Amino acid sequence: MVSTLHSELIATVSQLAEALAPQQQRFLADLIRIRSYTGDEGAAVQRTLQELRAIGCDEVWMDSAGNALGRIGNGRRVILYDAHLDTNEVADASEWPHPPLEPVIEHGAMWGLGASDCKGGVAAIVYGAAILKQLALSGDFTLLVMGATLEEDAEGFALRALVERDGVRPDTVLLAEATDLTLRRGQRGRCEIRVRTTGKAVHASTPHLGENAILKMLPVVAALEAMNADLPTHPIFGKGTQVVSLIEGPHTPNSVPSWCEVTVDRRMMPGETMASVLAGVRAVVEPLGATATIPDQPVRTHTGLRLDGPSFYPGWLLEETHPLLAAGQATGQALWGTPLPVDVWRFSTDGTYSAGAAGIPTLGFGPQEERYVHAADDQVDLAKLTKAAAFYALFPLMFVNGEEGTIERG
Known about the structure:
Strand content: 25-35%
Oligomer: single chain
CATH class of the largest domain: Alpha Beta
Number of strands: 24
Helix content: 25-40%
Number of domains: 2
Low-confidence stretches: 403-410
CATH topology of the largest domain: Aminopeptidase
Number of helices: 10
Distance between the termini: 7 Å
CATH architecture of the largest domain: 3-Layer(aba) Sandwich
Radius of gyration: 24 Å
Structural class: alpha+beta
């Protein structure tokens, strides 16, 4: 039948989120138990595919890059929920209050590797879809739920493969990264720049016959650092930064080095491009005899597919007046009776491709908290996890129909 969005429906969404919370938590615990470092997400992908089938998705599949995908509906507007399954590697498990791969519920939160980045987000979007499916709520939308891969080392590469290799282009993307139940509308970009000097190798006993590439690099490093004073500034993101983060040369300690290369980590404002970044760096280092390039990021999926691409991840910012942001605000208002705070991320996400490269309107919302990301006390609040599922269930209706629009219930 056809009806308007009303308080009874919203209450039912919240009630079903509570009813499904035990299943949602079991799924998250299963994901935490699976070690899924970047490029080795196969078992976590299979577990996600299993859950997508269990909640009744209309179609479930793994794409060419090895992402787990489920579809609900077949409407005109395609909405993609994205949360990644890969995690950072654990440097020292003894620093963790609980073993990283053994989920523990303590103080109302589930602890474990990836709980906040981003397996809690995967559980949120999957069970948002589960609520939508159980209530048979539909409209002129197709909802795609993706357990993404590769995000930690090469954010956006797996999403790029879905769009450009497999031809699945959503109209909008919601990222279930850490926002603590608020909204995020953008992020700074980042890129890697390699700067190299060359010299002449000779035996270290006769250095006067050679040309030391390390010594040639010294003024280059100083010039790169001095560039920080003039990097672009943004009213929301602040000032761009760059830092020399690595230095390399030949592994021959008894020779004068013939080359020296530094890696520069550059944090960018929306609108900066590979061409503009390289032009600025080259203008500074080339007069000092150095070269500058943006290298390719080597990327291999857990399926064996190579997705190498430039190590350049553009920034992005969704306009304050964009309908996507308005729909996010309306969803939060309908569920909890208060406007959701809006901010931007300080870290990078898959939005660097969806919004920064492909120009797809993108918004962030998730139950996790940024303070636990990549930390030994990695955790997600379970009450917030339940609330996030309700948000993801209601959002497609708000986005497609508006707060006073119509929906269909089977």
